[in-house]
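Colleagues,

For the teaching module next term, I've prepared a clean inverse folding example: a structure given as tokens, and then the sequence designed for it. I'd like students to try predicting residues themselves before seeing the answer, so please don't circulate the second half yet.
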């Protein structure tokens, strides 16, 4: 837990006041809610819509919402929607063009004005994922202007993890369960005999401004100690871990591994994992022209490297086999992402494991690659 800026304690009424203050500032507040048996992100009109008293049970290919004995609001792990669904939306229209009767061509900006989002309950791993997408979409030669504007106007409220899920492995990726930086406000939830409360830390001038408008409880010291201990225990109870090796080098040396055949044998190449991944950023564009030929628009939507058409060039796809697409997914995420963007593309959120229909476990696969690489080739064939 990083001690940044002002520290204060809120109760549930203070959390209600936080949402109300953000709404009063004209922000669209988005946070976790319960819908269709899962924790999903949706627009909030008040803090009462948060999933109080709910948690999730996770395993490979398994997600189940369960009731708790208390009314904790942020003890669930990330659901099927990462924050990128709002900052890097699934579909948008960059521009449209229209040709008038005289032949004059008019091109118009197609993106709607970026909402001023306040994202409440962002997990530390998702906060790290936003930082990764910042590098991918705004720091290179080609900037995604839509993402840049949405991120620039976003107010981020991170909720530190006190109860990790069974598929979480953020500790081994250095992305949780505590939040280090990149937030406006950080919440750590404490439920004890003394009551239900939230330790709040500010991480920006805007966070300071919002916190100054909220009713606070008088005591900070006792809550801070409980919050620090809860986050520390969460790190000690992490469900999974990637091997403590140079993952970039391991995956680079495993491109010809036999294990890829095993993965490809049960991978459906459905793309579920890229939909729920908080860092996957691939898109494709298509032109749609009306019957007159006088009006067209460009549409951009998410794409997945698991799709056969993703690597299509004249004559056919470069990666036609399931093996090649699985290898592209994992080797890029853990190895060649470093070459492009200076970091891993994985933040250890565990969504790929939980939401894979076949329960493919990235931590299990990487451990298998490590074992195969350390075993002489002759023994592997026996």
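(Answer key — instructors only)
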């Amino acid at each position: 837990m990083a001690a940044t800026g002002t520290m204060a304690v809120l109760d549930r009424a203070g959390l209600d006041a936080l949402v109300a203050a953000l709404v009063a500032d004209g922000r669209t507040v988005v946070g976790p809610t319960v819908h269709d048996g899962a924790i999903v992100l949706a627009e909030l009109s008040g803090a009462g819509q948060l999933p109080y008293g709910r948690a999730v049970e996770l395993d490979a290919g398994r997600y189940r919402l369960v009731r708790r004995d208390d009314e904790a609001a942020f003890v669930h792990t990330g659901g099927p929607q990462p924050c990128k669904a709002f900052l890097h939306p699934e579909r948008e229209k960059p521009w449209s063009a229209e040709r008038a009767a005289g032949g004059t061509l008019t091109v118009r900006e197609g993106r709607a004005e970026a909402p001023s989002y306040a994202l409440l309950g962002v997990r530390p791993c998702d906060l790290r994922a936003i930082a990764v997408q910042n590098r991918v979409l705004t720091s290179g030669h080609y900037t995604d202007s839509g993402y840049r504007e949405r991120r620039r106007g976003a107010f981020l409220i991170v909720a530190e993890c006190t109860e990790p899920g069974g598929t979480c492995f953020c500790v081994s990726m250095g992305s949780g369960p505590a939040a280090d930086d990149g937030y406006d406000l950080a919440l750590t939830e404490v439920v004890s005999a003394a009551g239900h409360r939230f330790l709040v830390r500010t991480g920006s001038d805007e966070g300071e401004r919002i916190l100054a408008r909220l009713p606070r409880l008088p005591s900070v010291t006792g809550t801070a100690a409980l919050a620090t201990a809860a986050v520390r225990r969460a790190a000690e109870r992490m469900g999974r871990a990637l091997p403590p090796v140079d993952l970039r080098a391991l995956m680079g040396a495993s491109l010809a591994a036999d294990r890829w055949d095993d993965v490809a044998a049960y991978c459906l190449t459905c793309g579920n994992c890229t939909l729920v991944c908080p860092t996957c950023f691939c898109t494709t564009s298509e032109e749609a022209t009306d019957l007159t030929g006088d009006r067209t628009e460009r549409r951009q939507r998410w794409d997945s490297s698991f799709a056969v058409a993703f690597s299509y060039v004249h004559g056919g796809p470069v990666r036609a086999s399931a093996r090649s697409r699985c290898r592209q997914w994992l080797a890029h995420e853990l190895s060649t992402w470093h070459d492009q963007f200076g970091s891993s593309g994985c933040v250890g959120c565990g969504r790929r494991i939980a939401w894979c229909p076949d329960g493919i476990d990235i931590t299990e696969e990487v451990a298998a690659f490590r074992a195969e690489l350390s075993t002489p080739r002759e023994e592997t064939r026996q």
